[in-house]
User: Which sequence fits this backbone?
C-alpha cells in the first residue's frame, strides 16, 4: 500500500486479481487501542505510515467517543477502534498519536465511490 504519507505491506481483502492499481480503500485494524502499549503520544504532528519490524505504524489524530470507542484520523480517513485497558487518559482527544500493530492485523478492503 502506498499513500501520500508512507507505504507498507498489508493484507489485501479484495479480489487478488484487483490488487494492483489505485483504489479507494477501507482500513481494518484487528486490534484495540491500548494506551502506553500499542499507542503513545506522537513526536510530530503530521500523518505517517511506516513499517517497523513485523508491525505497521500509523501516526494520526486520536478522536475519542463517549461510548468507549475511538478513531484515528489518518491521511484523510478515519480508522475505527475499540479501547482496551488502560484507555487513553483524559485530554488526549484530538492529540497526535502513534499506533503500532502487527502487520497481519491490518487489512485493506477496496470499495467503489
Assistant:
Amino acid at each position: 500500500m502506498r499513500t501520500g504519507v508512507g507505504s507498507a505491506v498489508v493484507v489485501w481483502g479484495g479480489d487478488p486479481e484487483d490488487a494492483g492499481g489505485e483504489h479507494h480503500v477501507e482500513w481494518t485494524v484487528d486490534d484495540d487501542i491500548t494506551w502506553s502499549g500499542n499507542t503513545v503520544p506522537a513526536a510530530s504532528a503530521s500523518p505517517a505510515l511506516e513499517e517497523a519490524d513485523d508491525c505497521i505504524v500509523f501516526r494520526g489524530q486520536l478522536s475519542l467517543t463517549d461510548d468507549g470507542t475511538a478513531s484515528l484520523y489518518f491521511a484523510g480517513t478515519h480508522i475505527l477502534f475499540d479501547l482496551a485497558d488502560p484507555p487513553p487518559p483524559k485530554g488526549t482527544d484530538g492529540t497526535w498519536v502513534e499506533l503500532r500493530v502487527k502487520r497481519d492485523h491490518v487489512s485493506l478492503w477496496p470499495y467503489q465511490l
Q: What stands out?
A: The chain has no helices and eleven strands. The two ends are 19 Å apart (CA to CA). The chain has one domain: 2-13+26-111. The mean pLDDT is 91.
